[in-house]
Design goal:
Elements (H helix, E strand, L loop, with lengths): L5 E6 L2 E6 L3 E5 L4 E6 L4 E5 L5 E3 L1 E4 L5 E4 L6 E6 L4 H6 L6 E3 L6 H12 L5 H12 L13 H11 L8 H7 L4 H12 L3 H17 L5 H8 L4 H12 L3 H4 L2
Antiparallel strand pairs: 1-2, 2-9, 3-8, 4-7, 4-9, 5-6, 5-8, 7-10
Helix pairs in contact: 2-3, 5-6, 7-8, 8-9
Length: 247
C-alpha cells in the first residue's frame, strides 16, 4: 500500500476520498455515499439511533451521521451526485443507511486500491470507478425519477460562474413561477434552492482546493464570502475541517 495517508479525486458525477483513522462529527451532505473498508470495520451512528458496525455501507443524501474508523486500514468514500443516472440507481427514500456485503466489492475494491497506489487524479478514471460501484446489482434501489424542470435547474446552478444566483433568475428559465419552483425543488431534492446553491459552491471550492489553491482562494473561486464560511460549510458536510483533509 502506498505511504500516502489519503487520496482524493473528482469527476463530473462525484468523487472519491480514501483515508484512515477518521473520527467525524455529525454531518450530512448532498451525495449518495458508498463507504467501503479496506479491512477493519467502521462504525456509523445516526442521530437518535444506536451505533452500527459495518464493512461496507450505503448512506443516502441529507442523512445526519457520525463515523469512526480504525487506525490501521483505509476507508473509501464513494460520493455520487444523486441526480446523475449513477446516483439515481442508489437513491432510496425509505432507508437512510444500508449495510452492504463487502464480498460484492471484491472486483471494484481491487481497482480502487490500484488507483490509490498510483499517482494522478484523472477524472475519467474516477468516473469509471464510480460507475463500477453504482453498477453492482445488489446496491440498486427502487427507481427514482426527478422532474425534468428541476434537472434543468441543476445545470443552471452548477454552470454558474460564482456570481450570486437567485431563485427569481432560475425559475423563469425552467418555465415555473418562483413559488411553484421552490415547492417542486424541495419536493424533488429534499433541499431548498438556497441549500443546493450552497452545495454547488462547496463542490467548486473543493475542486479548487485540490488544484493547489489556498483555502482563501478556493473560497473565492467557489463564491463564498470568505474562508471561514467555506470552512463551516465543509465541516457541516463532511464532519471534519478542510485543513484536516489536506494533511
Amino acid at each position: 500500500m502506498a505511504k500516502r495517508s489519503f487520496k482524493i479525486g473528482f469527476s463530473d458525477i462525484g468523487g472519491i476520498f480514501i483515508g484512515k483513522n477518521i473520527q467525524s462529527d455529525f454531518h450530512k451532505h448532498y451525495a449518495v455515499t458508498v463507504i467501503i473498508s479496506f479491512g477493519e470495520t467502521f462504525s456509523i451512528k445516526l442521530a437518535g439511533h444506536k451505533e452500527g458496525v459495518y464493512g461496507a455501507a450505503l448512506v443516502q443524501k441529507n442523512v445526519s451521521y457520525s463515523l469512526k474508523s480504525g487506525k490501521t486500514d483505509y476507508l473509501a468514500f464513494i460520493h455520487i451526485v444523486p441526480y446523475t443516472s449513477e446516483g439515481l440507481k442508489l437513491s432510496d427514500g425509505k432507508c437512510a443507511i444500508r449495510a452492504l456485503d463487502i464480498a460484492d466489492f471484491d472486483s471494484v475494491l481491487r481497482k480502487i486500491k490500484t488507483w490509490f497506489r498510483q499517482d494522478g487524479h484523472d477524472p475519467q478514471k474516477i468516473k469509471e470507478l464510480l460507475q463500477a460501484v453504482s453498477s453492482i446489482p445488489r446496491l440498486h434501489c427502487d427507481s427514482i425519477e426527478i422532474d425534468c424542470r428541476v434537472m434543468a435547474s441543476f445545470e443552471l446552478i452548477m454552470q454558474n460562474d460564482g456570481q450570486k444566483l437567485s431563485v427569481s433568475e432560475v425559475a423563469p428559465q425552467v418555465c415555473l413561477s418562483v413559488s411553484h419552483f421552490n415547492r417542486l425543488f424541495k419536493k424533488e431534492t429534499g433541499l431548498t434552492f438556497r441549500k443546493f446553491v450552497l452545495h454547488s459552491k462547496l463542490i467548486k471550492s473543493i475542486f479548487a482546493m485540490y488544484e493547489q489553491n489556498s483555502l482563501t482562494q478556493a473560497a473565492f473561486i467557489g463564491g463564498f464570502a470568505d474562508q471561514p464560511h467555506l470552512t463551516r460549510t465543509f465541516k457541516d458536510n463532511f464532519g471534519i475541517k478542510p485543513s484536516t483533509s489536506l494533511k
